[in-house]
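Sequence design from tokenized structure. All designs in this work follow the same two-part layout: the structure record, then the generated sequence. An example of the structure record is given first.
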């Protein structure tokens, strides 16, 4: 049984806690939140001991691994200290707000020989898993052009002041649009080598972006585009198209997967489920637990997490310079 401590026992920490309860090899033993009453209430609901100082949680010998679900700018320090404490780490996306910080986290995990997994939940969402199966089968050939979008309400009830400032790792792209970016990179199956973009703040009074349109050039010469928009009012649009050599795939989180061939869309059975997010987070924990127990590489590793952040950094540079920004080639692991 792997004892887990949650550092950042807030809105999404609770999603993780509920998912952990479904995983036999995982047990929630501790949680941390600065507000003592909120930490105690979280522990009362989900189990484990409550802390107000994450350093004290890292000293708890019952904690074998930690979930870090704090504000983005705190990821680097906490993850490095967790690695030095010998704790395996499930680090919520983004891995960190900068490539330099991602590199520091990865180095700490490797030096201290702990598992580091980045919480890119799309890799465990049923619609994406079904799409990956189709791509890997080769029936439609390789993806050639991809289009992925996340268009949603920005000022949700769990929005916090740090989300509105770039210095604290905020912005729609780093917070939510990253899902659309990650999903496209993963399913295209290639690292990004060049980025073009237009980013800005169009709907809200804040320093960080609330909208971005991004063009991606992949290592094999194929191309893709990402739309990240946090609107003031509207309805969620969270979907993706992959145009492959022999057909198309539509990923829709409301209706599941459809395959396009011969001018017709054919729904893929069993490609959608109720509470897809909760189910995906539970799969994420099973995969993380398996990597620890079997001493295998994390299925979504630090190199991959850093590459996604590199694409976001490049997008902001590309928008400012109005030109394509190259990204060093990497292997997606």
């Amino acid at each position: 049984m792997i004892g887990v401590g949650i550092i950042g026992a807030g809105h999404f920490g609770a999603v993780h806690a509920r998912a952990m309860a479904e995983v036999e090899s995982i047990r929630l033993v501790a949680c941390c939140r600065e507000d003592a009453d909120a930490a105690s209430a979280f522990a009362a609901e989900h189990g484990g001991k409550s802390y107000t100082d994450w350093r004290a949680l890292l000293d708890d010998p019952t904690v074998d691994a930690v979930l870090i679900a704090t504000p983005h700018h705190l990821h680097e320090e906490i993850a490095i200290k967790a690695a030095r404490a010998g704790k395996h780490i499930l680090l919520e996306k983004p891995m960190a707000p900068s490539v330099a910080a991602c590199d520091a986290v990865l180095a700490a995990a490797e030096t201290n020989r702990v598992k580091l997994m980045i919480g890119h939940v799309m890799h465990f969402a049923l619609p994406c898993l079904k799409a990956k199966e189709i791509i890997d089968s080769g029936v439609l050939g390789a993806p050639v052009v991809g289009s992925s979008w996340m268009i949603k309400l920005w000022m949700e009830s769990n929005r916090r002041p740090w989300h509105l400032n770039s210095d604290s790792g905020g912005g729609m792209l780093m917070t939510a649009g990253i899902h659309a970016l990650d999903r496209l990179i993963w399913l295209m199956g290639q690292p990004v080598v060049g980025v073009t973009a237009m980013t800005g703040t169009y709907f809200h009074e804040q320093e960080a972006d609330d909208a971005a349109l991004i063009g991606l050039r992949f290592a094999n010469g194929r191309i893709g585009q990402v739309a990240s928009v946090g609107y003031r009012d509207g309805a969620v649009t969270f979907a993706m198209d992959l145009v492959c050599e022999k057909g198309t795939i539509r990923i829709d989180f409301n209706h599941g997967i459809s395959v396009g061939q011969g001018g017709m869309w054919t729904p893929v059975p069993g490609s959608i489920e109720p509470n897809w997010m909760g189910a995906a987070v539970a799969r994420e924990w099973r995969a993380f637990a398996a990597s620890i127990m079997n001493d295998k590489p994390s299925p979504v590793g630090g190199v991959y997490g850093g590459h996604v952040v590199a694409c976001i950094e490049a997008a902001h540079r590309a928008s400012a310079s109005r030109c394509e920004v190259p990204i060093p080639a990497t292997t997606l692991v």
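DSSP finds nine helices and 15 strands in the chain. We note this feature because it recurs in several other targets discussed in the main text.
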